[in-house]
Design the sequence.
C-alpha cells in the first residue's frame, strides 16, 4: 500500500496530469473537440468502431447475421482511432454524445437511426432481424439478464482491474488487489453458469455470448492485458475456458474480430 495517504480536496479540480496510457485523451468535459465529419458508405448499416472488447461485439453480430445469409445486415465499417481522438470529432459526437465506441447508424429506412452503447446496438439488431435473442419470455429474460450483467460488470474488469494492472503510471497494491478480487468473482460467476449450460444464457447462442466473450472469453484465452491470465489463474475456470474456445471457433467471430483491428 502507498506510504503517502491522499486527502481529497473539498472540490475536485482537473489540475494534475492524468497519466497512464489514456491520460492524454481523458477530460472531465463532454462534447466535440474538433470538426471531423464521418465517412459514410452505401450499405444498410454504418459501423463506427475499433477492435477493442467493446468494439468487436457489433461486428461479430453483423458477421453472424451475414453468415445466416441475411443480406440486409450488410455494413460498412469505419475505424475510430480513440488514441487520435476521433471519438471527439463533431461527426461522431452527433451519433454518440458520450464519445465512446461503438456507434451504429441504421440507414435502411426513410430516416437514419443512430444507436450507441454496445448493449443497445446488440439488442436493436437482434430485435430487428429476430435472431440471437429468444422469443419466449423465459429465454429472453435470461439473455437480457446476462447482456446487462456484462454492461455492469465489465467496467470493473476493464476500467478497474485493466487500468490499474496494465495502464496506470505505477502499479499500486491496493487497487490491483481490489479489482483482481472482483474480476475473479466475475469469472467464478460465469464458470458456475457455464457448468450448467452450453452457452451463457442456456443452450442457444445469443447476443449475451457476443457481449461477454470479447471481455471474458478473450481473457480466458490469455488475450487480454499481458500477464493477466496467469495472474488471475484463468485456467482454473474450466467451464469458462471450454465456452471461450467454443465461441472462438465460430467463423463469424473470427471475421468480426478482424474488421476494425487498427
Sequence:
Amino acid at each position: 500500500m502507498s506510504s503517502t495517504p491522499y486527502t481529497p480536496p473539498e472540490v475536485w479540480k482537473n489540475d494534475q496530469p492524468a497519466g497512464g496510457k489514456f491520460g492524454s485523451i481523458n477530460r472531465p468535459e463532454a462534447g466535440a473537440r474538433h470538426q471531423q465529419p464521418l465517412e459514410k458508405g452505401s450499405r444498410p448499416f454504418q459501423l463506427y468502431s475499433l477492435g477493442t472488447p467493446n468494439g468487436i461485439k457489433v461486428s461479430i453480430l453483423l458477421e453472424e447475421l451475414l453468415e445466416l445469409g441475411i443480406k440486409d445486415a450488410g455494413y460498412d465499417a469505419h475505424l475510430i482511432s480513440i488514441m487520435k481522438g476521433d471519438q471527439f470529432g463533431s461527426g461522431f459526437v452527433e451519433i454518440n454524445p458520450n464519445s465512446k465506441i461503438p456507434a451504429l447508424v441504421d440507414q435502411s429506412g426513410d430516416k437514419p437511426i443512430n444507436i450507441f452503447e454496445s448493449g443497445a446496438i446488440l439488442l436493436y439488431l437482434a430485435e430487428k432481424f429476430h435472431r440471437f435473442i429468444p422469443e419466449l419470455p423465459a429465454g429472453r429474460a435470461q439473455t437480457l439478464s446476462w447482456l446487462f450483467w456484462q454492461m455492469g460488470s465489465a467496467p470493473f474488469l476493464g476500467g478497474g482491474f485493466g487500468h490499474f494492472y496494465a495502464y496506470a503510471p505505477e502499479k499500486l497494491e491496493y487497487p490491483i488487489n481490489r479489482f483482481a478480487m472482483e474480476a475473479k468473482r466475475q469469472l467464478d460467476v460465469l464458470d458456475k453458469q457455464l457448468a450448467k449450460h452450453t452457452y451463457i444464457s442456456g443452450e442457444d447462442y445469443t447476443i449475451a455470448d457476443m457481449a461477454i466473450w470479447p471481455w471474458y472469453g478473450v481473457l480466458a484465452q490469455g488475450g487480454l492485458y499481458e500477464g493477466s491470465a496467469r495472474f488471475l489463474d484463468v485456467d482454473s475456470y474450466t467451464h469458462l475456458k471450454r465456452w471461450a474456445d467454443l465461441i472462438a471457433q465460430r467463423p463469424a467471430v473470427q471475421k468480426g474480430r478482424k474488421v476494425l483491428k487498427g
